[in-house]
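Quick question, first post here. What does this chain look like in 3D?
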Amino acid sequence: MTGSQREFDIVLYGATGFVGKLTAEYLEKAGGDARIALAGRSADKLLAVRDSLGDKAQSWPLITADASQPSTLNEMAARTQVVVTTVGPYAKYGLPLVAACAAAGTDYADLTGESLFIRDSIDQYHKQAADTGARIVHSCGFDSVPSDLTVFALYRHAQQDGAGELTDTNLVVRTFKGGVSGGTAASMIEVMRAASSDPEARRVMNDPYTLTPDRAAEPELGGQPDLRWRRGAEIAPELDGYWVAPFVMAAVNTRIVRRSNALLDYAYGRRLEYGEQMSMGRSALAPVASALAAAGNAGTMALGSRFFHRVPNKLVEKVLPKPGTGPSEKVRESGHYTVETYTSTTTGARYRAVMSQKGDPGYKATAVLLGECGLALAKDREKLSDLRGVLTPAAAMGDALLTRFPAAGVTLDTTRLA
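> Answer (accepted):
Ran it through. Tokens below.
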């Protein structure tokens, strides 16, 4: 059965959650003629979400499905071209849906930032998804679309110029206003708990190529540390006077970018080194702040798993934001981010990509990115890559997303610097 013969273009699973509702609102506004259904565990809550949306959404069907009942996921996946899911932590709830989509040949997009879950998805379902024609695309929100697509855009620009392959490449978060979502917090806890009790999980998390299709095929470029602090000028002359520290999501995003390069048959280059930082400014205190941030991130990675493993769940739940919760509309609207990604090529050319969005990165901006990924998979199939299996945003739909971004309020520009 082809996608056009299926009942729906997109099923939004987890529509009653906080980011799920925001994604539903975005799809109602930007979905055009897409055939959309809302799915979740509670029919009553789904009805309430639909009632809160605009006129176009009032005809959207409702589907009751639950990760604890795989048969309901199988039935849901078989009815649609694409499943967009916000149901996490994905290590707890994600694999049954990946299995259903891989078996049905249904495309899939999620918001996971959980490297261990992605590795399990690859190991268990990549081959089946490739055989059935499914695209299983992880990390379609703020984690890791800005990382993945800025590098992809730089590659396209350098390719167009005939300027060679990418080498030293670094993303720098220049501005960021927003908070950590409850779903992201829950996902981080799950990863840390797993790492605390499983030496193999710790090894996987520490490997810079943990998501690669073939570990033995990767170039040995050193550890590519995700937790260093340094002067901005070490990245690019344009950052002279600034200090940078590790970005908190670097350990996830960098591995997505490296998987994209491998899936694209090393189109970026086999000498690609990729890291992520956040700007700490250029004041006299910036070096201290940068060093403290680096030490804090390293401490979190080293000690966090032990801490969360031993602290009772109820205490953790009181301290961190709860899944399904989020900030007020005023706070969401006031959020924003800007990232700059710098690269040098094998011919000595230098480029910069700048990507920005308005809206809280973890909520409003993420809902836009996830919605656009779902629409690209459903409606822009002629612009998608020929790859199938467990993919990344850039490897599955890089060109389609670059085309979609302007109308979605996502700015992504590339400039040749030298």
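The CA atoms of residues 113 and 139 lie 6 Å apart.
The longest helix spans residues 286-310.
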